[in-house]
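User: Protocadherin gamma-C3, Herpetotheres cachinnans:
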Amino acid sequence: AQIRYSIPEELTRGAFVGNIAKDLGTDVAKLAAANLQVLSDSDSQYFSVNVNTGIIMVSERIDREQLCGQNPRCFLHLKLAIENPVEFYRIEVEILDINDNPPEFPSDEVSLRIYELASLGARFPIQPAQDPDVGTNTLQTYHLSANENFNLNVKARTDGGKFPELVLERALDRELRAFHHLVLTAEDGGSPPQSSKTRITIQVLDANDNHPVFDRPSYGARLVENSPLGTLVVKLNATDVDEGPNGDIRYSLSSHNSAALRQIFAIDEQTGEIRIQGSLDFEEATVYEIEVEAKDMGSPTMEEHCSVVVEITDVNDNAPEVILTSFSSSLSEDAPPGTVVAVIHVRDKDSGEQGKVQCHVSPDLPFQLRKDYEHQYSLLTSTRLDREHVAYYNVTVSASDLGSPPLSRHTILPITLADVNDNAPQFEQASYEVLVAENNPVGSVLVTVSAADPDSEQNSRLSYSILRAAGTDPGLDPTRYLSIHPTSGQVSAKLPFDYEQTTYLQFHVEVSDGGSPALRNRTLVHVFIVDQNDNAPQVHFPRAGEDSTTQFRISASTAPSALITKVVGIDADSGRNAWLSYHLMEATDPGLFSVALRSGEIRITRALQETDASAHELLVVIRDSGEPPLSTAVTLVVLVEEKGPEALQGSEARAADGGGLPMITLYLIVSLVLISTVSLVGLAALGVRCL
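Assistant: Predicted structure for Protocadherin gamma-C3:
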């Protein structure tokens, strides 16, 4: 939408321009809630808007002549931006001229020297007055004071300028009057009009009675902008019928020409060739009107004037300009498609098709351009964004004109995606299996669990905790035995493990990120307790006293190889650590008794003799197979007696007890084999899983 207002220049600050709420047909409260902003195409902010009333006001002094110079129409362009949803309104404010500048001559006095034989109708240009106003407020007419010899002619140029000329209407006679004093008044068309005056002093000279004459009253030429220096514009030709110095002509640029024009064009005073000595720019001026004078070398010199009109043809020499009206370099990765990232204004100083601009971005990027209206585009997101896939974009906006060949300009917009917590942490392993030797030191690290989160900063800061696994013994709380470092994931022992009490422990480790809301994940940890040889064997039979000594009797007639008793040991450890062996370390008669290595059976090796002692002391050591091995000892005192009924009954009873002892040994051997088999199978399964 576009709205147009008109205001005069030089209004005071706070002056009313228009009511944007009324002209848009909307409520003032809605404009205030929509964060109404005024954006100006110029460097100065000449206008402001009161969001509470919707009134546009003047905020800085506006000088039309400073803004637009001699252009007949002067406009300031604004854009109103409204958020939620984003809308733009283009406002065009026309600045109307007021008559605040009078015409002014370059000098208060002008001196002319005119030969007395100057022909009737001869013209003598006067430097014109300048009025920066435009339209009817600019210079409109000149008035010449009453006199007998001169009349005033006002020459109108193609650009609207008016140049006064004195026209000789009656022949001069120096002998009658050597000086003429005239007053020239310049007046504009304002209401009321303003004017200024200059005094003209004319000295009448004698002699040279013919002035140079151009072969045509005006010349025309056409050049393309950026023509090289030294390019010939036109060759002038003037003649003077006088002879000698009075007919020798010199060409020059008239003093009517501006200093800027003199820097662009130069004339050869001998040949009359006008050439380029500065740069031509169609965007600065499309037409140049050069005032040229030809003077003879007489005394006094006589001169003639003509105009050269040079038209400039535009070429495509200006690349488009890309101006960011609004830009957000940071964009949330969950921004929906169609989100406005930047508002871009483009312009090209060339004219016609060469000044039309088209913009585009790479189709490989998740962004697109939308043309809002002429010279303005919006950069939008075209698809969903994912910071974990691409975190940073350099979006190149290419602007090209329609010239031949076309010119283009590329602007890079760096866009960083802000993270949102859209990824849960992931463990490196679905489960962990740990072998821990019992009696481990307190504080030792058993395992380190590790998880990763592709989010960034706070959303990727992880925290670990231990939870009881479902289906486990409620009394077996893992937090009693274990602790976990909340940031490193190191699981440490709070208590030493005892294989004889706990052989296996299972628990969950939960990891949560620092997002809001936090995302979580879990992994299962299996802890297998490995037995250590930390229990020495114990004597289960025979029962010994506090001094580890026990007594029993045998008959003196006991046959060789007869079983007299059996030592039975037990070990709380398992596996190889509970595999026991029996050794006869000391004996009163070492050759009389023997101990079975695995069963602990004690037998007599030969028949007893009368010379043998009546009491024998045996030291039996029970040793396990751990590393290092642990052992215990028992002392047996064997008393030899003559066979009697009581003794025989005691022997038979002991023999009966001894008959049951090998079954215990069998049970121990079977248990050892089973435990070893299960351990080997478990280790094999663990190895396969690790592979």
